[in-house]
Design a protein that fits this description.
The complex is a heterodimer. By secondary structure, chain A is an all-beta fold. In chain A, 0% of the residues lie in helices and 53% in strands. In chain B, the strands form two sheets. In chain B, strands 2, 4, 5, 6, 9, 10 and 11 form a seven-stranded mixed beta sheet that branches. In chain B, a hairpin with a 2-residue loop joins strand 7 and strand 8. The chains are: A mainly beta, B mainly beta.
Chain lengths: 114, 114
């Protein structure tokens, strides 16, 4: 079974600054996938970034990047040049290879300070 | 809209009522999921359907009854609910092609049981 832990219930950052959201996970599988989802007030969960565990290179998507530390089972999300539209709940999630079912963390609420 | 549509957006029901939540996707996905989202808790997986067959039921009380008539439609039938069932119910779909690209979510149904 997988578990995903997000230890920061809330975070805030000044607009245009950089913020890092933490996530740790536990799995007995050797091949798996990790995700960050964003849930704005509109409630629609939107995929932000995806990481394949067998790839050592950290995934990046424009201002969003991850720091994937496989040995430490850590998967943090870095948001650069924070914008007001980044304000949302952010969920870390994991799935095993061959099974698309996702296990989610409890989420981090990110506030952007103008 | 991301391609997964949930109706209704909001629902208030009494404990003796019977209602249904609907989820529809035309993305060609073969897996569909129901999740329950409560405050400060991880998203709870309720049911999984692969190729319209139920493959997972996470010990969900029988007052929640899912139905998947085809790969594009998923229903959650509700009857004699309890106040603690009040939550956001999210539907999601995924391709089920072994590539683990994550889910596409609907906007959810906010359910209030009175």
């Amino acid at each position: 079974a997988q578990t995903v832990t997000q230890s920061q219930p809330e975070m805030s950052v000044q607009e245009a600054e950089t913020v890092t959201l933490s996530c740790t996970y536990d799995t007995s599988e050797s091949d798996y996938y990790l995700f960050w989802y964003k849930q704005p007030p509109s409630r629609q969960m939107i995929l932000v970034i995806r990481q394949e565990a067998y790839k050592q290179q950290n995934a990046t998507e424009n201002r969003f990047s991850v720091n994937f530390q496989k040995a430490a089972k850590s998967f943090s999300l870095k948001i650069s040049d924070s914008q007001l539209g980044d304000a949302a709940m952010y969920f870390c999630a994991a799935s095993n290879f061959g099974n698309e079912k996702l296990t989610f963390g409890t989420g981090t609420r990110l506030t952007i300070i103008p | 809209e991301t391609g997964v549509t949930q109706t209704p957006r909001h629902l208030v029901m009494g404990m003796t009522n019977k209602k249904s939540l609907k989820c529809e996707q035309h993305l060609g996905h073969n897996a569909m999921y129901w999740y329950k989202q409560s405050a400060k808790k991880p998203l709870e997986l309720m049911f999984v359907y692969n190729f319209k067959e139920q493959t997972e039921n996470n010990s969900v009380p029988s007052r929640f009854s899912p139905e998947c008539p085809n790969s594009s439609h998923l229903f959650l039938h509700l009857h004699t609910l309890q106040p603690e069932d009040s939550a956001l119910y999210l539907c999601a779909s995924s391709p089920l092609q072994g590539l683990n690209y994550g889910y596409t979510f609907g906007s959810g149904t906010r359910l209030t049981v009175v």
